[in-house]
């Protein structure tokens, strides 16, 4: 099975480098990006299209679906990391964010702040997303429209169920910051290899 993880198109929140609501829409550049990436993905002849329930992902997926003649399946397991409400509007690399992420990574229970999710919660949801993909036909070609943190944590945990070391977390944060809007990461799943160990592997990074 071929899986193409696609980060959603650009938003004003991305331009401002701030945390955003789930209902943030694509801006004009984001709409252009969605149109362009849809034409590129059409050449891959996708058979399934899955998207996060967030508006920016749905708008990106709709454009892809229009070009590829696919109806997007919205699925909550593919949503971005659920952040607490107080982070909305805060700078991605600001003091408030950094303090929160340290508490979140080290498992401080209050880090969820009631309306966010803990690292343990997130890894359980990543496993749910992985199982959903693995349930699709072996010859499926799947596009998944999601978010920078979700995509990177999925890649990190698709063969490693345990939590990351601080060193690996630092590397992964850099990758989160580097994945561009509508960037693609091509991943392959082999049921045969899954019987012997991990059936997942990255084929190509951001295209």
Automatic annotation (TrEMBL):
Molecular function as annotated in GO: phosphatase activity
Gene3D superfamilies named in the record: Phosphoglycerate mutase-like
UniProt xrefs under Pfam families: His_Phos_1 (PF00300)
Cellular component, GO annotation: cytoplasm
PANTHER family, per the entry: BROAD-SPECIFICITY PHOSPHATASE YOR283W-RELATED, HISTIDINE PHOSPHATASE FAMILY PROTEIN-RELATED
This protein's name: Phosphoglycerate mutase
């Amino acid at each position: 099975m071929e899986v193409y993880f696609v980060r959603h198109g650009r938003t004003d929140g991305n331009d401002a480098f701030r945390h955003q609501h789930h209902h943030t829409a694509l801006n004009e550049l984001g709409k252009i990006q969605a149109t362009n990436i849809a034409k590129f993905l059409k050449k891959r002849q996708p058979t399934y299209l899955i998207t996060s329930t967030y508006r920016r992902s749905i708008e990106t997926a709709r454009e892809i679906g229009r070009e590829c003649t696919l109806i997007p399946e919205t699925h909550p397991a593919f949503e971005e990391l659920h952040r607490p409400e107080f982070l909305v509007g805060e700078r991605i690399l600001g003091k408030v964010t950094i303090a929160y992420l340290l508490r979140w990574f080290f498992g401080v229970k209050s880090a969820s702040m009631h309306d966010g999710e803990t690292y343990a919660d997130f890894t359980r949801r990543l496993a749910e997303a992985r199982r959903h993909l693995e349930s699709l036909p072996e010859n499926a070609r799947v596009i998944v429209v999601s978010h920078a943190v979700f995509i990177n944590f999925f890649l990190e945990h698709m063969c490693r169920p345990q939590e990351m070391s601080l060193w690996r977390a630092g590397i992964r944060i850099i990758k989160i910051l580097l994945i561009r809007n509508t960037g693609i990461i091509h991943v392959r799943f082999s049921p045969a290899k899954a019987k012997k160990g991990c059936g997942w592997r990255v084929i190509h990074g951001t295209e």
